[in-house]
Amino acid sequence: QVQLEESGGGLVQAGGSLRLSCAASGRTFSGYFMGWFRQAPGKEREFVAGISWSGGNTVYVDSVKGRFTISADNAKNTVYLQMNSLKPEDTAVYYCAAGRLSVGSNYQSPDAYDSWGQGTQITVST
User: Fold this and answer.
1) pLDDT tens sequence across 66-101
2) Buried b (16+ CB within 10 A) or exposed e, 16-28
3) Once rounded to an integer, what is the mean pLDDT over residues 20-42?
4) Higher pLDDT, 2 or 62
5) 68-73 and 78-83 beta bridge pairing
6) Which of 69, 73, 98, 120 lies 20 to 30 A from 55 at CA?
7) In whole angstroms, what is the distance from residue 57 CA to residue 54 CA?
8) Taking residues 47-51, what's their average pLDDT?
9) How many C-alpha atoms does 30 have within 13 Å on its Cβ side?
10) CB-based contacts of 29: which residues, under 8 Å, 6+ apart?
11) Are 72 and 11 within 8 A, CB to CB?
12) DSSP letters of 16-29?
């Protein structure tokens, strides 16, 4: 079982930046896919960005392309989400997730992941 712990959330004005961190522990992560999701009040959990731990391939939801960057530091077992040009609609609880996705897995579905962090609140004010 992978343990995940997010940090870096907070309150920021529109146009500002934040960096989230997700520290992973519990096992080796070769072959894992790491994702960031977010959930706003009254909405479903939404895929934001993902990265393959070993290959570094990245994917993003269209609404954050060009603004958010996901990266991984293998030596520190930590995944980051750099968020720039934040908008009020980015306000949500952000979750880090890990899963051993197979061919055909939908990386945008929360069901594809078996380990989750506790979440960290991001609030973007106008």
Assistant:
1) 999 999 998 899 999 999 999 999 999 999 999 998
2) eebebbbbbeeee
3) 91
4) 62
5) antiparallel
6) 120
7) 8
8) 97
9) 1
10) 2, 53, 74, 77, 98
11) no
12) --EEEEEEEESS--
